[in-house]
């Protein structure tokens, strides 16, 4: 992680109120704050959030908010994106250690060298990357709009796609484009076991497999539908099926079950008996930490202005290019 933050102080024992939902709502009014939460957050955080979404939806909300304070219940790169879009707002991240294995797999120095070796390539970077990587990119994309973004690029233009190789491979399959891939990946989406998914299909022959494109190809080939987190949610709403094996971080199942209580959602298993299908970074945020962040006005996300300005341009290009993308 590459941002500068204010030090986080500790609250004295007993300072956490009994009713956190009420206390957070009070602070939200006092601060004129908005709480943005990713689908992979704990259910309590999802339930208190003003907006729940995937990376594209959260980016749009961050760009449009008139709140003075943005409390981002997600991971580091998401809070950075909110700060890039809102330089004059206070952006808080409940736990500063909520990083991202995919973002960390693309160090800025190494990527700068990689980019310099291919000067004729346009750089399209998945939003799951640091502000420094965004600043070196021409266009940002999300899993919701990556295919559509690439399709808008002239066919004779060479493209570097970073940092996720699995999403990049999926985009290549969908567009027929030859992309130069940075070899990054997400630890969560690479833990799903093809063998155990097949076993689940045998046990539940009426279940559809739905998967995020960050999953590896052996998992994706069993999916009847592949899409972003929001797209998976919408597909399960419209599909006539009543049972789904969900190959993405299982936090989304909270929303699926809330909106479709008569359907069954089975989290895709990891390669062993651990709970490795849960993102350890997303789950660092808790309701208590969210309250303390609002109470203390920290940890605050800040960025060097030259990085912020450079990163803003490719994000704005994404928002402009994806204005008509339905998710």
Structural features:
alpha/beta; 15 helices; 14 strands; 16% strand
Measured as a percent range, the helix fraction is 40-55%
**Overall pLDDT level:** 92
Briefly note the structural class of the backbone.
alpha/beta
Low-confidence stretches: 1-14
Strand percentage: 15-25%
Radius of gyration, CA atoms, in whole angstroms? 20 Å
Main sheet characteristics: 4 strands, parallel
* C-alpha geometry: globular
Q: Tell me the total number of β-strands.
A: 14
- The helix tally amounts to 15
Strand order of the largest sheet: 3-2-4-5
Question: End-to-end span in angstroms?
Answer: 29 Å
Run of helices and strands:
EHEHEHEHEHHEHEHEHEHEHEHEHEHEH
Summarize the structure in short:
This protein has 327 residues and is an alpha/beta fold.
Structure explained in plain terms:
This protein is α/β, with parallel strands linked by helices. 40% of the residues lie in helices and 16% in strands. The chain contains 15 helices and 14 strands. A four-stranded parallel β-sheet has the order 3-2-4-5, sandwiched between helices. It has a four-stranded parallel β-sheet with strand order 7-6-8-9. α9 links the parallel β8 and β9 (179-181). α1 (20-31) packs parallel to α14 (287-296), α4 crosses α15 and α12 (229-238) runs parallel beside α13. The model is unreliable at 1-14 (pLDDT under 50).
